[in-house]
Design a protein that fits this description.
The complex is a heterotrimer of chains A (293), B (348) and C (264).
Chain A: H1 2-32, H2 39-55, H3 60-83, H4 91-113, E1 128-131, E2 134-137, H5 138-160, H6 162-172, H7 174-179, H8 184-210, H9 219-230, H10 235-260, H11 265-279
Antiparallel strand pairs in A: 1-2
Helix pairs in contact in A: 1-5, 1-6, 1-8, 1-9, 1-10, 2-3, 2-4, 2-8, 3-8, 5-6, 9-10, 9-11, 10-11
Chain B: H1 18-32, H2 39-65, H3 73-90, H4 96-115, H5 127-143, E1 156-157, E2 163-164, E3 167-168, H6 172-195, H7 197-215, H8 219-246, E4 248-249, H9 256-269, H10 274-299, H11 305-326, H12 330-334, H13 338-343
Antiparallel strand pairs in B: 1-4, 2-3
Helix pairs in contact in B: 2-6, 2-7, 2-8, 2-9, 2-10, 3-4, 3-5, 3-8, 4-8, 6-8, 7-8, 9-10
Chain C: E1 9-18, E2 21-31, E3 36-40, H1 47-54, E4 62-67, E5 70-72, H2 77-82, E6 85-88, H3 100-106, H4 116-120, H5 124-143, H6 159-171, E7 177-181, H7 189-205, E8 209-213, H8 217-223, E9 226-231, E10 234-239, H9 241-245, H10 248-254
Helix pairs in contact in C: 3-5, 3-6, 5-6
The chains are: A mainly alpha (293), B mainly alpha (348), C alpha/beta (264).
Chain lengths: 293, 348, 264
């Protein structure tokens, strides 16, 4: 029993990390209607920038500030050079463009800052915590806490600030928002910047866990099943989806894995997502769209 | 106005002429090529170019014509390669060409299975299915030694190489003609499909699949056909990549980066065209060379290999975005001649 | 056109709602064989939704459709097509990447008997079916005077021409009933007359039953044998054009809406 709980809790905490990444995707999808394949690369870029700066003597707060400034600049560039020229194109086209974007960001980031693995120390020690017989990682716990804090901050942003309300307007009905005089381009820039910052947080946490390296950008591949399950347009959905994927992977590896030779984590989440696509295509919390002819 | 007879006889069609001459020239060049080019070029540039064109063709049928987005090209190529290996190993009496066909059919069947979700899922979400295939096969072919015959480095290679019917196609010329023959044949078959009912069904699904169903296009069947045919071709391309180009291959040869690469090929070359696969493959094969050469020239060999790779990556990404913005029909539109222009000048 | 004969199409107590909004409420009417039945009414009255139900795109919440004596509530779009229900769409659901003639041939898909392998290998059966389809498509293009555009990508043509291509695609498969969604929209008077004449001839010469949605009430009252008026998804009136024209409820529904084109 305690093994089950331990696996479950470990999985849930890992899932919280997934949720953190997925939130960045939800933001962009809600505002621009595109699945930003480059989110992983931006995550890598943020973490890499931070690490490079601190390694070169820049104090942590300064490094964060500079990184955020760069992310904002990136968001503005993306909006001007990618989103605007591709308005009204199909989701498939937009997706492929973000695929291209991921290549650009990765190439530039690693070209300038190198491709070796970098250690990232956030000052959080990964001490084991014991609750009864159950082992929990302190680091994972902290990461979950950060995710929670982020969600609260974002929901305050969306519900209490003017920008946040405009954002929701744009997400719900772009044309209506335009007719109200909302500057869509500005909104997109803001959303991509916020998503970049969310990505930075996720990138720092993941980087501290497994080192800052290219594989960080592959988190995008984990985010997709999370979003399918939780819904592309909902932050609570991203959280629930992340938890389900995290717990599911963990339990599957422990209990089903041995029959298949182990190592099933890479594809299990996708199998789960496929099942969800069949029974609930819009995800647990997503909106259903009706096709009109 | 005319009589309302829905079965009145048609008017004569088509012009051939110029197309036939062009085709003859290309054929002559292709057949004579190995005698004008160095072995290095054949082995390292031309053969992979041909195989990538084939892979692009396969993916283009599914993504460019039928509009079903797929990131699973690597997976289906992998299945074809591993199936060919298994067949040649365990059924050596089956000559290589037939083994290739069977391997292609196996890949096609796998494609069909992973294409089933397309009957319920539309558009972008479909990549979940093909990504699932990608990750699943990357795991499968590594996890179970049966697939690579217990080989310590988990690689597959044909013990007899490319030999069949008493012929030995292992040298550069052999590999070239073998590959050329297969690629040409499959291109011809694909061309026939595109020109006919199936091609029209696919494009209808791509452009507006709900309306297509209402009109009477068999959407379900056509989608599955697209997956099956596409994966069949990708499977054969994978076998060729492993055994006519690399010599020995493993799961790494067909990873997610391969899926990206093939998708890039058709985006740059032109989605929904046959020649797009060739143009894109040529571009993707030659660009690294061009960049290499350029940097050697500018910095006289002082460039870090890793840096070069990253620069290449960034340039690819920029090109993808540029093509999507400016020329969604890729190089094949950019290089198209006046006949397209003249079609647009219709009065009324 | 006696009412005792089996109707071509019958709508029985059909209701449909979207996200809580009722698009169609308990709608019933009959369409007799070989008649032109027009559905008119202000925007949002549920007319397109009704056509979508008949084509199997939407499933009604309740009620059923009876087509040629067979009852069904939900049907796959492709089955509707196979039964001979042809359709023209409101927003020109043409396949923009294809040429005009390919679009029209697409309307013959359900008549194709050729397998994948036959096509790949260019076997005789595939070639002859292809020729046959091309001929039939050209014949229909001829009717609409579209032959000169046969190889043009359909997306580059003007709206009025596209509408004709759509109708051509809808009839090439020789449907038993034709559903047209605003076939005259966006056209000038001359073009409207041209299409109205074609519709007339499709009905008289090919004996095609036609159900059409149209906003140009003037033309509708001259073209149709039978008119059904909808308002907010409810049937307001049902009868021959003469009675509809003088119906006070119909006139009231139109005054205050944007399309007050009721002939005096």
């Amino acid at each position: 029993m305690s093994m089950f709980l331990e696996t479950l809790i470990g999985g849930l905490l890992a899932g919280a990390m997934y949720s953190l990444v997925a939130i960045g995707f939800v933001l962009i999808y809600k505002a621009s209607g595109v699945f930003n394949y480059a989110q992983g690369s931006i995550l890598l870029f943020g973490a890499l920038t931070f690490v490079t700066l601190t390694e070169n003597g820049v104090p942590a707060y300064g490094a964060i500030a500079i990184t955020i400034a760069l992310l904002i600049a990136t968001a503005i560039a993306v909006e001007k050079l990618l989103l605007r020229p591709l308005t009204n194109r199909s989701p498939m086209t937009l997706f492929m463009a973000t695929l291209g974007l991921s290549y650009v960001v990765e190439g530039v980031a690693q070209g300038i800052m190198g491709s070796q693995v970098r250690a990232l120390n956030l000052g959080i020690e990964d001490l084991p915590i014991f609750i009864g017989d159950i082992l929990i990682s302190q680091f994972d716990l902290m990461a979950a806490g950060v995710a929670l804090a982020l969600v609260i901050a974002l929901s305050l942003l969306f519900n209490r600030t003017r920008i946040g309300i405009q954002l929701r307007g744009v997400a719900d009905d772009t044309r209506a928002a335009l007719s109200l005089g909302i500057d869509i381009n500005r909104i997109w820039q803001i959303v991509w910047a916020v998503a970049g910052i969310v990505g930075l947080v996720a990138g720092l946490l993941w980087g501290a866990r497994q080192g800052v390296q290219f594989s960080l950008s592959l988190v995008v591949l984990k985010a997709l099943p999370v979003l399918i399950i939780g819904g592309f347009t909902s932050i609570p959905g991203a959280i629930v989806g992340g938890l389900i994927v995290g717990a599911g992977e963990s339990l599957a590896e422990t209990y089903i894995g041995p029959f298949l030779g182990g190592g099933i984590t890479p594809w299990f989440a996708y199998a789960l997502a496929l099942v969800f696509l069949f029974i609930r295509p819009s995800g647990l919390f997503g909106e259903r769209s009706i096709e009109r002819v | 106005m005319a009589e309302l007879d829905l079965r009145a006889t048609a008017e004569p069609a088509d012009l051939v002429g110029l197309k036939a001459i062009g085709l003859a020239v290309v054929t002559a060049l292709a057949l004579a090529a190995p005698f004008f080019v160095s072995e290095y070029w054949i082995n390292a540039i031309i053969v992979p170019f041909l195989i990538l064109s084939l892979a692009g063709l396969g993916l283009n049928l599914l993504t460019g014509y039928a509009g079903q987005l797929s990131l699973g090209a690597g997976a289906f190529m992998m299945v074809g390669a591993y199936a060919t290996f298994a067949l040649q190993l365990r059924m050596p009496e089956l000559p290589l060409p037939f083994a290739l066909i069977v391997a292609g059919l196996i890949a096609g069947a796998v494609g069909l299975v992973f294409g089933l979700p397309s009957t319920r899922i539309k558009g972008f979400y479909l990549i979940v299915s093909t990504l699932a295939a990608q990750f699943f096969f990357e795991w499968l072919f590594l996890k179970f030694p049966w697939f690579y015959n217990g080989n310590s480095s988990a690689t597959i290679a044909l013990s007899r190489g490319l030999s069949f019917f008493g012929l030995d196609a292992n040298g550069p010329h052999g590999r070239y003609y073998f590959t050329l023959g297969i690629v040409t044949l499959l291109t011809f078959l694909s061309f026939n499909l595109i020109r006919g009912q199936t091609g029209r069904n696919w494009m209808a699904i791509r452009d507006m699949d709900t309306a297509a169903a209402v009109i009477g296009v068999p959407v379900l069947r056509a989608k599955l056909q697209a997956f099956a045919v596409s994966s069949f071709i990708l499977g054969i391309a994978g076998a060729l990549w492993a055994f006519a180009y690399l010599g020995s291959a493993s799961v790494q040869s067909f990873g997610l980066h391969r899926s990206y690469q093939v998708l890039f090929i058709i985006i740059i070359g032109g989605l929904g065209t046959i020649r797009g696969a060739y143009l894109g493959a040529a571009f993707v094969s030659l660009l690294p060379l061009a960049l290499d050469w350029l940097f050697q020239y500018l910095f006289s060999g002082q460039v870090d290999a890793g840096l070069l790779q990253n620069i290449q990556k960034a340039i690819f990404g920029i090109l993808i975005i540029w093509f999507l913005i400016r020329e969604p029909e890729g190089l094949s539109r950019l290089l198209a001649i006046r006949r397209t222009a003249s079609r647009r000048l219709f009065p009324s | 056109m006696g009412t005792s004969a089996t109707p071509a199409l019958e709508i029985r107590n059909v209701s449909l709602s979207f996200k809580g909004v009722k698009a169609i409420s308990d709608l019933s009417f009959r369409v007799e064989k070989q008649e032109i039945c027009a559905l008119i009414g202000p925007n949002g009255a549920g007319k397109s939704s009704l056509l979508n139900i008949i084509n199997g795109v939407y499933v009604p919440d309740s009620g059923e459709i009876v087509f040629e004596g067979e009852r069904f509530q939900c049907m796959q779009p492709i089955d509707a097509a196979r039964r001979g229900i042809g359709r023209g769409f409101q927003n020109n659901a043409l396949f923009s990447g294809m040429s005009v003639i390919d679009n029209v041939i697409a309307g013959l898909s359900r008549h194709s008997r050729v397998t994948l392998v036959e096509e790949m290998l260019r076997l005789p059966r595939a070639l002859s079916e292809e020729r046959d389809f091309h001929e039939r498509a050209r014949a229909v293009l001829h009717i609409f005077d579209l032959e000169k555009h046969a190889n043009t990508p359909v997306g580059t043509l003007p709206y009025g021409v596209q509408k004709k291509v759509e109708m051509a695609r809808a009839i090439v498969g020789e449907p038993k009933i034709l559903l047209l969604d605003e076939p005259l929209a966006g056209m000038n008077a001359a073009e409207k007359q041209e299409i109205a004449t074609i519709i007339q001839r499709l009905n008289t010469e090919l004996k095609l039953t036609i159900v059409l949605i149209e906003h140009d009430v003037g033309i509708v009252l001259k073209l149709a044998h039978h008119v059904v008026v909808l308002d907010y998804g409810r049937k307001l009136a049902d009868g021959v054009p003469a009675t509809i024209r003088d119906n006070p409820d119909v006139i009231a529904a139109y005054i205050g809406s944007e399309h007050s084109e009721v002939a005096a």
